[in-house]
Write a structure and sequence with these properties.
By secondary structure, this protein is of the alpha+beta class. The chain contains 12 helices and 11 strands. The chain is 47% helix and 20% strand.
């Protein structure tokens, strides 16, 4: 075994004999229904006839996939290695008798934490002010405000109910037409200048609105083009503020909330819960940052790259929830996949660093999650998120993953105990 640094292990292993022969035949059997050869019906070509005419080369690629995982697991066992990143796989040599793989295995680096106790980090005080409670109530009143029809002219902040049709040089374009569209004036959701030109219009009047599409507009055929929108205004609506009355409390649908006092109490409890979580997260971040400055570790690039891949998948999933694809995101932000990966690299490095630190603290403190700890966590968390333990376990993938999470939480508890300034 050759090592090109302490945590990078380059290992060769060969699959030969019956194991390799079986892989070649399985590959042939999987594809033989599509093999055509004079004198044989489809799917009836003998293996020996096929390789005599076509050689073994056409089977090597798929056959290598059949044996690579078992070969890798054998390497890990024989060399007693625990990988922390995806291995690099290279086929060094292949013929009809054998295949030789070269695996580059990345293992966990040594972590030297010089100090993780008595850091004396101050935790923010939990406080909810009357102003914050009043602000939340105002937000609720605005959220539940009703739109009512008003007379007069359109003003900023009003909602205009309009028909519109856009054209360039007299020719309508796709996506430029709508009927009974509700547009909040001042929301800046339309092309710059469009909403401003609606101000002063009266209901059941029409107007031609001239605008120029921005140079960075997402539709290529409209960038920088001058357009005219024929607009007809049907109605003007304005928000009517709600009162803290019985109808409002009924619309809120909050259990036990039927007065201003009970609403204030509910909001205070809600704010305290979220502030407490924010305070804990800030404290943990400050503790981890302080420990990282007292830690020596040489993190392999492959660990960071794997974490970037994970963050990329998470970003894509979050965008998908908003109905946006990654390609569309790149168009909107004028960035590329490489740009996004570069942006995520700093976060990825920190994630890996903090994970290595926590795993070392778990080892130093001899932290272990028992079966009872795991069961208790599954029970409490499933109740918190209104799901079943079975569904939660499925999300985690395995009890070992839950066990790891519980141990990390215990490590955080230890760090809080050791480092909070009294």
């Amino acid at each position: 075994m050759e090592k090109n640094n302490k945590n990078r292990h380059v290992v060769e292993t060969t699959v030969e004999g019956e194991a390799w022969s079986n892989a070649l035949k399985k590959t042939f059997d999987k594809n033989k229904k599509n093999i055509k050869m004079d004198g044989f019906r489809p799917g009836k070509v003998p293996f020996e006839m096929y390789v005599k005419k076509n050689g073994y080369d056409s089977l090597f690629y798929e056959a290598s996939d059949l044996v690579v995982q078992e070969a890798f697991e054998k390497v890990l066992k024989d060399e007693n290695l625990e990988p922390v990143a995806r291995p690099l796989v290279n086929i060094k040599e292949v013929d009809k008798d054998k295949i030789t793989f070269e695996f580059t295995v990345i293992t966990k680096p040594d972590v030297n934490i010089k100090k993780y106790k008595d850091l004396k980090i101050k935790k923010d005080k939990l406080e909810v002010t009357k102003e914050e409670i009043d602000h939340e109530i105002e937000h609720l009143l605005e959220h539940y405000a009703e739109l009512v029809i008003k007379d007069g002219k359109v003003e900023s902040g009003d909602t205009a109910i309009i028909d519109y049709e856009g054209s360039i040089d007299g020719v309508p374009f796709d996506g430029g037409k709508a009927e009974n569209y509700s547009l909040v004036i001042g929301s800046n959701t339309f092309i710059p200048g469009f909403e401003d030109q609606l101000i002063g219009m009266e209901k059941e009047t029409e107007k031609d609105i001239k605008v120029t599409f921005p140079e960075d507009y997402h539709a290529e055929n409209l960038k920088g083009k001058e357009a005219i929108f024929k607009v007809k205004l049907h109605e003007i609506k304005v928000k009517k503020n709600r009162e803290l009355d019985a109808d409002f409390f009924e619309d809120l649908g909050m259990e036990g909330v039927d007065s201003k006092e009970s609403l204030e109490s509910e909001i205070k409890e809600h704010l305290e819960t979220h502030k407490k979580e924010d305070i804990e997260n800030k404290f943990v971040d400050e503790v981890m940052e302080a420990i990282s400055k007292n830690t020596d570790v040489d993190i392999p690039d492959e660990m960071v790259e794997d974490e970037v891949d994970s963050l990329m998948r998470r970003t894509e999933q979050n965008l998908r929830y908003q109905g946006i694809t990654l390609d569309l995101y790149y168009q909107f932000t004028k960035t590329t996949e490489a740009d996004l990966r570069n942006q995520l690299e700093k976060q990825a490095f920190q994630n890996v660093l903090y994970r290595l630190i926590l795993e070392e603290i778990i080892k130093l403190e001899k932290i272990e999650a028992t079966d009872e700890d795991v069961d208790k966590y599954l029970e409490e968390t499933s109740q918190k998120f209104n799901t079943t333990k079975e569904n939660l376990l499925k999300e985690y993938g395995s009890r070992d993953n839950v066990k790891y999470d519980v141990e990390v939480r215990k490590a955080f508890d230890k760090l809080t105990e050791y480092n909070e300034a009294k």
